User: What shape does this take?
Amino acid sequence: MKSRLYDKLSKCCTEDEVRSEFARYFKFKLNTKQRIDHLTDQILYEFKYDKNLKNIKVKSRTIAQTLYYIRKLKYGKTSKPIPRNICIVDNDEAFVFSTVSYKSFYTANKKYDWDRAASHLVLF
Assistant: This one.
């Protein structure tokens, strides 16, 4: 009998394991081009390990990281479309949200330093 995804993810010990197990479960080949955890035309995936996504600071940092990637798709040198949704997956939980809901953040917004790497984002 096939194990449930949660059971498989709960045994992961790293972010790479979470990403690999998720891809194996849903039978897709990971596309990590553009330095994104996984990207399809419909969904941008960001995988985490052992984060408390219920914590507002952790959640907002992770959302900011995905918006950084969306902005790179919008203004970068790629022909990839901006996916309609973003899915953030942790070994313990996940959530999906619409990309368009955050459009005012990733478009020509001068309030944010978009030159900083997503892994160095600091929220005040």
